[in-house]
Amino acid sequence: VHAKHEEKTESKSVYREYNREFLLPKGTNPESIKSSLSKDGVLTVEAPLPALGYGEKLIPIAHQ
Asked: Which residues of the chain have pLDDT under 50?
């Protein structure tokens, strides 16, 4: 994630930069990553987890 904000007026100048790296689980599709910025300035980044690859499994229930 890399973000920049620059603001210039006659009396002041503001520059902010943010950089953060994350390791994604194996098999994550980078094209499926979504991000949003809230009105409060909270950045949310979502990446769906890859399928585990397990098929249907029957689990016996013990009745006592």
From this structure: none
Structure tokens at 56: 């249907």
Secondary structure of residue 30 in the 3-state scheme: helix
User: Is 5 in contact with 14 (CB distance < 8 Å)?
Assistant: yes
* Distance between CA atoms of residues 29 and 49, nearest Å: 9
Q: Are strands 2-8 and 13-19 parallel, antiparallel or unpaired?
A: antiparallel
DSSP 23: P
Residue keyed to tokens 């930069």: 17
Q: Cβ of 47: how many Cβ atoms within 10 Å? A: 15
Task: Give the amino acid at 6.
Answer: E
Question: What is residue 10's DSSP assignment?
Answer: S
